[in-house]
Write a structure and sequence with these properties.
The strands form two sheets. The chain has a four-stranded antiparallel beta sheet with strand order 1-2-3-4, sandwiched between helices. The longest helix is centred in the first third of the chain and has 19 residues. The protein has one domain: Aminopeptidase (3-Layer(aba) Sandwich), CATH 3.40.630.30. Helices cover 33% and strands 28% of the residues. Helix 1 packs across helix 3. It contains five helices and seven strands, in the order E-H-H-H-E-E-E-H-E-H-E-E. By secondary structure, it is of the alpha+beta class.
Length: 178
C-alpha cells in the first residue's frame, strides 16, 4: 500500500479530478443510473464544479467555515506514485440530510477501476474519516461498494431515497460509534 501518496486536493488537481470522476461514474454506474445523465457529462462544466468544490472543501477543513459544528471536514486524493495519476478521492463532512442518523457523512468515495483491490479505498477512508461514526448513501445496485463499506463497519439501516435526476434508488449505510 505504499504505491499511493494521500494528499489534500488543490486547484491544480481540478481538471484531472473532473476527468477521473467522470470516468469512475461511467465505468461504475452504467446500467445503474440514467444513461442520458452519464452520456451528458462534459469535462469543462465538471472542471468548474471541481474548482468550486475544492475551494469550499479546503475552507471548511481549515476552519474558515463551519468551524463550530464539531464535524470533520476532510477531502483527500490518492496519487499513484509510479504513474502520477489520481487513483481516487474521498470526501467527508457534515450531514446533507435533515434527519441524519449520525452527524458525519462520508459524502464521496471514488476509485478508478484500474486500482480496485489495491487497498487505496481503505487508505482514503482512513485518511479522511478515520474511525468516526458516519453514514453514507450508496446506489442500491452497487453491490461492490456495499461489500467494501461492510468491510469497514457500515451496515444498511433501512433508510432509502430515490434520486430522480439520476434515476436510481439509494440505500443508507451507517457505521455507529465505537
Amino acid at each position: 500500500m505504499t504505491d499511493f501518496h494521500i494528499e489534500p486536493l488543490t486547484d491544480a488537481d481540478a481538471r484531472e479530478l473532473a476527468a477521473m470522476h467522470m470516468q469512475v461514474w461511467r465505468e461504475t454506474y452504467a446500467g445503474m443510473l440514467s444513461q442520458d445523465y452519464l452520456d451528458g457529462m462534459q469535462l469543462e462544466p465538471r472542471v468548474a464544479h471541481w474548482r468550486k468544490r475544492i475551494g469550499v472543501t479546503n475552507a471548511r477543513e481549515h476552519g474558515a467555515a463551519d468551524a463550530i459544528d464539531d464535524i470533520r471536514h476532510r477531502s483527500r486524493l490518492a496519487r499513484h506514485l509510479s504513474t502520477g495519476r489520481i487513483a481516487g478521492f474521498c470526501m467527508v463532512g457534515g450531514p446533507r440530510d435533515d434527519e441524519a442518523p449520525v452527524p458525519q457523512e462520508l459524502g464521496a468515495l471514488n476509485v478508478l477501476r484500474d486500482f480496485h483491490g489495491s487497498g487505496v479505498a481503505h487508505l482514503l477512508v482512513d485518511a479522511t474519516l478515520g474511525n468516526l461514526p458516519a453514514y453514507l448513501w450508496v446506489v442500491r445496485e452497487n453491490l461492490r461498494a456495499q461489500a467494501f463499506y461492510r468491510k469497514i463497519g457500515f451496515a444498511p439501516d433501512g433508510g432509502t431515497k430515490r434520486d430522480e435526476d439520476l434515476e436510481c434508488d439509494e440505500i443508507r449505510m451507517v457505521r455507529p460509534a465505537g
